[in-house]
Amino acid sequence: ERQRDRERETATETDTVREGEREWERNCKGETPKLRIGQYHQREMMAPMGDVLHLLVILFLTEIVNAKVEDFKAAGATAPGDIIIGGLFSIHEGVKKSPDRSAPHASQCVKFNMNGFTQALAMIHAVESANRSPVLTTLGISLGYRIHDSCSDVTTALRASADFTKEPTTDCRRGANTSTCPPPIMAVIGASSSEISISVARQLNLELIPQISYASTAVILSDKNRFPTFLRTVPSDLYQTQAMVQLLSDSKWTWVGVITTDGDYGRSALDSFVSQATVSGICVAFKEILPDSLTSPDSESAVRQAAATLRRHPNVKVVVSFAKPTQMMYLYQELIGPGSG
To answer: Any idea where the Receptor ligand binding region domain is (predicted)?
Structure first.
C-alpha cells in the first residue's frame, strides 16, 4: 500500500510539472493560460487593490471638478441696464472653515454683516436715483448693477471678480439675441477691505476695468504702476497716520499701544504709524496683531492675549487701533467681562 501511495504522489507531481510546461508553452505562443482555482483566487484578491486606489482617485478628482467656479452662487442683486456696474460688499463677516482633509468646495458665508448690507443697499439706491435723473433719461441710457457678497474673504471675492471679467459666450460674440447676452461690467464698486481690494484689483487690471473703493486705505494702492485702474474716495493710510501722530503730539500722549490686524491694511498702517511716531518722539509700548479674518480659529485666543497685554501695561492710557470694529468690541467685552479684575 505504501508503494502504491508513492506511485500516486509521483504521478500527481508529474502531471503538475507537465501542466506547468504546457502553460508555459501557451504563454510563449500568446494563448490565454488556464488558471487553477487557487491561482485564480490569489490573483483575484490582488487585482482589486489597484482598482480601489484608482476608484478613490477618480472620486476625489470628481469632487474637485465639481467645485468649479460654476458652483459659485449667482450675484446677490442684479438689475438690467445699458451700462452695468459691479458691486463688491462684505455682507457676511467670514466663511466657514472646511476640514483639512476635505475636498475643495465653494466657501459657505457666515455671520451676517449689517454694515455691508447697508452699503449694498446704498449702491442700489444710487443707481436707481441716477436712472431717474434728467441727464440719463434725456439720453435714453439706463444703469444696471450686479452685486456680489465678498464674505470678507479673498477667495470668495476673486470668484466674484471672475464673474465680472468673464468673456461672453460664442453665441454672444457672433451677435446672438442681446436679451440673453448681458453687457459687460464697465466698473466695479468695492471692496471695503484693503486686502480684498488689492487681490481684486490685480484681476480687474487684466481687463482694464475701473475699480472704485469706498474704504480701502492701504498705501500700496496709490501705486499707479501696479494698480492703474484702482481709485478710491478715501485718503490713504499715510494721511491717516500723519493725523493720528499729530493728534498724539498735540495732546502730549507719548506712551501708547497699538492693536492692528494681520492683513494688508493692518500691516501697512502699523508700519506707517510706527515710523512717523518715532520721528515725533512717541514711544510704542506694545503691538498686538489680531487675525484679519473674524472666523479665524485663532481669533478668540488672540483677543484674550491682547486683553492680557493691556492689563500688563496699566501706564498706557492711549491705545491706537487699526483693527475692525467687531474685533474691538470683542476686546472690550474681554476687558470688562468676568475675571477681568
So the answer is: 120-326
